[in-house]
Amino acid sequence: MGQEDTYRRMKNSQDIHNQWAFSSEDLEDRLALTLSPPSARPRPPPPLLPLPLQPALHQPRPQLQPTKSPEPMISPPPPHHPFYIPTLVTGPPTPTQARQELVPSRPLRTRRNPPKVRRSGNSEVITPPYPWATNHRATVHSLHNLLSMGIHTIFGEVKCKKCEHQYEMEFQLESKFIEVASFIATKKSTMHDRAPREWTHPLLPTCRYCEQVNSAKPIIDRKKKMINWLFLLLGQMLGCCSLEQLKYFCKHTKNHRTGAKDRVLYLTYLGLCKQLDHTGPFDR
Ligand SMILES: [Zn+2]
């Protein structure tokens, strides 16, 4: 109860800030939607890489972006814009390199059948890996939506480090989220944009079978799009992710993703909490 009160109070005190923060982020989102890849504009020559992005850009994002009013065209997007990162679809070369290599030697291949490209494995839109996940990578539904969908419990796989039993465990969505959110509300001012020790060295659950404390380690799917982010958040076990996995989260949720693990871990905690409750004290 006390925790919940703290969280509510923190939320209220940040309301004004958050309204502003939300609207500026909203604007960013809108800009992202209206910024088309160069191939969609009357600009030569159509690069090979941005093509697969078009479906993702124009795909409506349910719940997360209800506003889609048109905005005036802005100057071309910077090359490091997050939407350009997924162009890894076609491999490591940068768009510029690809153009230099491909355009002179194989000019006829600059346009390919878009539907084929859209089906490739690196599309931004995916099949939701869990009922609580959306069809966007590293994105979960808001707490409000989850509760109204009747989802109150989040499941995930763990494996005991001692007896090696592998089993499913569950967290109560609302109470666990309030726990995490209260922790952030109380400690955020002292975190200095870096994950505290509680997050970098998470206390693992006690094993259900051998009762070893700090032993039930979450099993993190090797396929990054299958990672059970909400389960890891509620158990405050995101610190079990590798730096690469955390960077994947940040990359697909438009966060800066450079820096040491404690910084990227911090961004992941805040990013996920913000997905659950965008009015909470989760702005950087
Ligand atoms: Zn055990």
Structure description:
The protein has 284 residues and is mostly helical. It folds into two domains: 35-118, no CATH class; 143-276, no CATH class. Helix content is 40%, strand content 6%. It has a three-stranded antiparallel β-sheet. Helix 1 (2-13) packs across helix 7 (173-191). The radius of gyration is 21 Å and the shape is globular. Bound molecules: zinc ion. Zinc ion binds next to loops. Residues 39-53 have a biased composition (Pro residues). Residues 54-72 have a biased composition (Low complexity). InterPro entries: DUF7086.
Ligand catalogue: zinc ion
**What is the string of helix and strand elements?**
HHHHHHEEHHEHHH
- Rounded mean pLDDT score: 74
Biggest sheet record: 3 strands, antiparallel
Structural topology:
Layout: H1 2-13, H2 15-34, H3 53-58, H4 95-105, H5 114-118, H6 143-148, E1 153-160, E2 166-172, H7 173-191, H8 197-200, E3 216-218, H9 229-234, H10 243-252, H11 261-276
Antiparallel strand pairs: 1-2, 1-3
